[in-house]
Amino acid sequence: MVAGSRIVAMGHYQPSRVVTNEDLTKTLDTNDEWIRSRVGIAERRIADTETVADMAGFAAEKALAASGLTAADIDLVIVATCSSIDRCPNVATRVANKLGIAAPAAYDLNTACSGFSYAVGSADHAIRAGAARNAIVIGAEKLSDVTDWSDRKTAVLFGDGAGAAVMTGVPDGEEPGVGPVLWGSAPDKGDVLRIEGWRPYIEQEGQIVFRWATTELAPFAIEACRRAGVDPSELAAFVPHQANTRIIDGIVKRLGLSENAIVAKDLVESGNTSAASVPLALSKLIERREVPSGAPVLLFGFGGGLTYAGQVVRCP
Ligand SMILES: CC(C)(COP(=O)(O)OP(=O)(O)OC[C@H]1O[C@@H](n2cnc3c(N)ncnc32)[C@H](O)[C@@H]1OP(=O)(O)O)[C@@H](O)C(=O)NCCC(=O)NCCS
User: What does the UniProt entry say about where the protein is found (predicted)?
Assistant: First the structure.
């Protein structure tokens, strides 16, 4: 019997091409000052040849190598993405094939920017139920494929990349490392953020999304902490979806974090990578050893749907 699950290792991948705000001014009527002050982004990575599955696979390979497990141990692969162009086969089976994972349960999950926390919650439930022993959970996006590069309102916001976590069961008697997921949606507001088949580019009513994120989400983040039995003041780090530093600051103001808590702001160098943003930011915090192993970290994603999800995890 298992008591729950934990994340044992993370990995991430970003394309090598850096696109700065200055680069965007060559084709768009925009400027570095506007982008930095309104959004917080300085640069982003844009994929040339890599697909969503390629980036997901690279991130997953790194996470698996760091986990001490092998492909033979993995029996569940979940990929959170909203930008995979191919409908079939799904990204998860492509990743499994690339990594030599022979016969896992493998599915994609689309809740846009909250996808990674939804996927971690789903994998945790599968492990608790005995439907899986070890899982790889990935957030991967190639948003450059669904960006209208002539629209300054959206083109300055997004980037490409992937982050992955290896999750495993925690035996009875030990403390689980993944807290209960808090997940939900506001479907009545779904149309304010869209990538529709007939015009497959990101469109949004930016101010409505901004208002929703800054006024309605903090109580859900606090509730995710409560469900894990962790007071927000005890968090070592907060890793929210990386959409806008003003949104992050607005949520942080209401959370009651300690002064020493780290707040991830990876969007400065990565842009908004939707489902990839939380695992990318978390993987980098771990790589830079900024959060001690075992310390509580609140993950919190939000975006298209509109959807949101979060949970407290123990840092691997
Ligand atoms: C997108 C966002 C940064 C726009 O900021 P904003 O302060 O709402 O800006 P507005 O859209 O009101 O535009 C203000 C002005 O800047 C202009 N503008 C828009 N994009 C610009 C750009 N890239 N460069 C320069 N000027 C720009 C607008 O045309 C407008 O000009 P006007 O006043 O002359 O009409 C902000 O609304 C936001 O972050 N929303 C949340 C969106 C989000 O995070 N979505 C993903 C969630 S997962």
Answer: Cytoplasm
Q: Rounded to whole angstroms, how far apart are CA atoms 114 and 135?
A: 19
Q: How far apart are CA 141 and CA 224, in angstroms?
A: 25
Q: Which fold has domain 2-171?
A: Peroxisomal Thiolase; Chain A, domain 1 (3.40.47)
Domain boundaries, the chain: 2-171, 182-314
Q: Which two tokens stand for residue 300?
A: 């919190």
Q: Tell me, yes or no, if 113 is annotated catalytic.
A: yes
pTM score, two decimals? 0.97
Q: Which of 113, 225, 244, 315 is catalytic?
A: 113
Known catalytic membership, residue 12: no
Fold agreement (2-171, 182-314): yes
Instruction: Determine the Cα–Cα distance for residues 124 and 111; give it in Å rounded to an integer.
Output: 17
- At 221-259, the pLDDT tens digits run 999 999 999 999 999 999 999 999 999 999 999 999 999
Domain 182-314 falls under CATH 1.10.238.10: no
Q: How many residues are listed for the chain in this entry? A: 316
**Structural contact between residues 83 and 145, judged by C-beta atoms closer than 8 angstroms:** yes
Distance in angstroms (rounded) separating the CA atoms of residues 118 and 160: 20
Known active-site residue 125: no
The SS3 of residue 235 is: coil
Q: CA angle 211-216-221, nearest 5°?
A: 130
Which residue's CA is the closest to the ligand 1 atom numbered 26? 30
